[in-house]
C-alpha cells in the first residue's frame, strides 16, 4: 500500500493520445497499414529516440521539437513519401484545428473515476493554451482538481518550477505524489528534480529506464 495522496498526470501521450484514426487513415492512402497496438508502440519508440534531441538541445521546447517528432514517427513506418510535405500539409493543419493529441483510449475515464475515490488527481501539461479545454472536451476535467498549462504559467517541463506550482496548489509534500508521463527527459527528469516520484508510461516496453515504468495506464494499480 502506497503512502501517496495524489497522482498528477501529463496530458498528451498519457491521458490524450496521438490521433491514431486520422494518421492511420492517411498512411493507408499510401499503402501503409498500421494497427493501433503497433502505432502506439512506435510512438513510445519515438519518445526514446527523442531523448538525444532533448540532451543535445536542452533549451528546446515542445514547439521546436514538433517536426522532428513526426519525422521520427514516419521513419518508424518507413513511409514512402516526402516527410516534410506530409508534416506541413497534413499533420500541421490538423493539429492547428483539432490538436493531434485528441484520442482517449478505452477505459481511461473509468480509471480516473476509480482513482479519484482514493487519490487527489491533477495535471501538468506542456501545452499551447488548450490543455484545460481538451480535458473538458474529452470528459476528463471532472476528475482533476486543476490543470496546469505551461502556456499560462510561463515555464515548461522539465523545469522543476512547474511541478512546484502543482505541489503548492495541492499543499502536499513531493514524496506524497506520483507524476505519470510518457517522455523520460521531460516528465521523469522534471518530476524527479522536484522530489515527486515519477512513473514513465512506456508502451514499447523494450527500453529500460531508471524509474518506475508501466506499459499501460491501468498498471498504475500495481504501484498503489
Spell out the blueprint of helices and strands:
Blueprint: E1 6-9, E2 17-18, H1 20-28, H2 36-56, H3 66-76, H4 83-98, E3 101-103, H5 108-116, E4 120-125, H6 131-137, E5 147-149, H7 150-153, H8 160-170, E6 177-181, H9 184-194, E7 197-201, E8 212-214
Parallel strand pairs: 1-4, 1-6, 4-5, 6-7, 7-8
Antiparallel strand pairs: 2-3
Helix pairs in contact: 2-3, 8-9
Cofactor: Mg(2+)
Organism: Chloroherpeton thalassium (strain ATCC 35110 / GB-78)
Protein name: HAD-superfamily hydrolase, subfamily IA, variant 1
Structure description:
Helix 6 (131-137) links the parallel strand 4 and strand 5 (147-149). The protein is globular. It folds into 2 domains: 6-16 and 104-223, 3-Layer(aba) Sandwich (Rossmann fold), CATH 3.40.50.1000; 18-102. It is built from 9 helices and 8 strands. With 224 residues, the chain is α/β, with parallel strands linked by helices. The longest helix is centred in the first third of the chain and has 21 residues, at 36-56. The chain has helices at residues 20-28, 36-56, 66-76, 83-98, 108-116, 131-137, 150-153, 160-170, 184-194, and strands spanning 6-9, 17-18, 101-103, 120-125, 147-149, 177-181, 197-201, 212-214.
